[in-house]
Input
Amino acid sequence: MKPWCIACLVASSALGAQMMPAALARAQPAAPVAMRAAPGTAGGDRAAIEAVLRQYLDVVDRRQPEGAQAAFHPTAPLASVTRGGSLMLLTQEAWLERVARLPTGGMSRQSTIAMIDVENLAAIARVDIVGTDGTRSTDYFVFLKTGAGWKITHKALSVPL
Output
């Protein structure tokens, strides 16, 4: 397993905030869209995952919550750490309530799919976000290929909620 894969898993765990090295926590955004697939993995999987990520981005960037049901597995949590350092797991319902409070038309920001890594029936992805005020954040996603196609099964935010 690659070091950054381990970091993604650690960051999304309950102990992630305490275990993640400070240098990794301050890492700069990666170069745009580096995609890798295991030998024999069809490029169609990467394209399908990118399409799911675009559905997700439409939820926030364009305030289109119906995309969440298409992009996320029904049980997928959304994880962050509070400003006080506690783990916060949101249900999709709670997250969509937050999205509903966004300004009409969604958020004005630049979202870049920076990385997709596919291995058989599992994948991870990284989306780098730059707000109009210059703030930067990164969202990490875990995907599994279900009978209904690729679904986001976990999302971890790099900034506190």
